[in-house]
Amino acid sequence: MLFTDYKDIEAWANGPVIRELFNYHRGHYNISEVKIGNPDTMTLIQKATIDAVLDYYGNKSAQWLIDLSHLEDPWKNSRSEMREMERGNKVIPLDSIAEYYSSL
């Protein structure tokens, strides 16, 4: 698992968020280097997955990513009882993320 140091992915109003990473990068809107974690502990498959995600999504705007996340079941299902822009921190279950994205 790539996020062993982080507890939860939360369904915030603008999309999925890992609170600890958000707090670490708060106020930085262009991140070219991550100084936390150890990439040497990742497998080649994990690194290739990250590279593929960055290749596809890395040039997308924040609004494009927000709009996309709002169409995807893991985020939508976790916020099903909330109003559109209501603040909240409901956890998105990892099994729902794995199931949804492995089916694409």
Question: Which key phrases capture this entry?
Answer:
two-stranded antiparallel ribbon, 5 helices, 2 strands, 104 residues, globular, mainly alpha, 6% strand
Description:
The protein is mainly α and 104 residues long. It has one domain (10-102). 42% of the residues lie in helices and 6% in strands. The chain has five helices and two strands; from the N terminus they run ββααααα. It has helices at residues 19-25, 44-57, 62-69, 73-78, 94-102; strands at residues 10-12, 15-17. The longest helix has 14 residues, at 44-57. The mean pLDDT is 88.
Strand content: 5-15%
State the domain count: 1
Silhouette: globular
N-to-C SSE series? EEHHHHH
Largest sheet: 2 strands, antiparallel
Mean pLDDT: 88
- Helix content, binned percent: 40-55%
Number of strands: 2
User: What separation lies between the terminal Cα atoms?
Assistant: 19 Å
Q: Uncertain runs with pLDDT below 50, 5 residues or more?
A: none
Radius of gyration: 14 Å
Judged by helices, strands and strand pairing, the structural class is mainly alpha
If strands are numbered along the chain, what order do they take across the biggest sheet? 1-2
- How many helical elements? 5
